[in-house]
Fold each of these.
Amino acid sequence: MARILAVDFGEKRIGLATSDATETLATPRLTLSRKSDEAVLRELDSFCREEEIALVVFGVPRDPSGSETAFATRIRSFAAKFAARSELPVRFHDETLTSDEAARRLPRTASKGELDPVAAAILLEDYLQSARAHRG
């Protein structure tokens, strides 16, 4: 088994969380400040090499009707740039309400920067659970 990275993409901040090698635990890791796509692509690529990441999961927001939001197009575009650069496989997973759940898990005094990796960990937890269910 390999480690998986979950990415909670935002225009200002990007939250990262990683799985353990058994793909059971999701751990909030860090928040990247997005100044430009190129800069954050370099940081992400470097992080993936250092952490021996084998798969990257990007959260995709959906509206209440279940359709992807307009921002999902931006996320998919960024993910395509990342996949071309890193040559790592990329998956997409519904991230609806991950930030709300992260806010519930953290103290009210937590900063937005603390929220992003926790939201990424919630995304990863859901992805891992879904992947296990599909494997049977």
Note: The longest strand covers residues 26-33.
Amino acid sequence: LPERLGTLIAVGTSICGLSAIVATAPAIDATDEEVAYAAANITIFGALATFIYPYLAHVLFGPDPLRAGLFLGTSVHDTAQAVASGLIFDQVYSTAGRPTIADVTVVVKLVRTAFVAVVVPLMAYRYARNQTRGTGAAKVDAAKLLPTFVVGFLVVALIRTLGDAGAQDGGRALGLWGPAAWQSLVTGVKGLAEDLLIVALAAVGLGTKFRLLKSLGFKPFLAGLAAALLVGVVSAAAALVFAPLLTL
């Protein structure tokens, strides 16, 4: 595979789908066509997993929330898709106890998503190192090793964590907002974030020429399929092996 396209498919499959792709793309100088191809790849296989894996999880693990949640949280690509798969399981099989499969799925997926703060700089460094080898440059440009997306991710995660901690037991989030006002603010910001992500992906689409996508060939699609299947198998095996070592 072309190096940049392979990297985008890899991070999208292994971390959090579209968000990881969008975060990694500028760090490795990916083209709009490569971003669009990787996004389509991840979206297609993630959507299939969203509707198939809840039923597979029930076959493999029954109503066990820990094993089923571990499987769904680690096997479904995009964060939104993983959440949807957990909700499908709960609704179809009426798992009303606590924690639900969706609860476990969300926690597992968020842990997985947090690795974007590690993997994106690593991919940026790997790409920059390869580029310097090809050009004979003396050193890697350190500015690309920590994309602004990662900085924003860490800052907002810290703000949310501190705010939630402060709002507990009737306190004030960050010393400013009461519990109800803080929850309202979080809900509004989350809605805005979803809208902005849609705009960003639409911008990628508007800058994409399908004739150039065709030039990338069919092999990246097959690679994405192989990666998705491999992740599913490894996730199921890991849930079977490691779940007995954990407690809820």
Note: The first helix runs from residue 3 to 16.
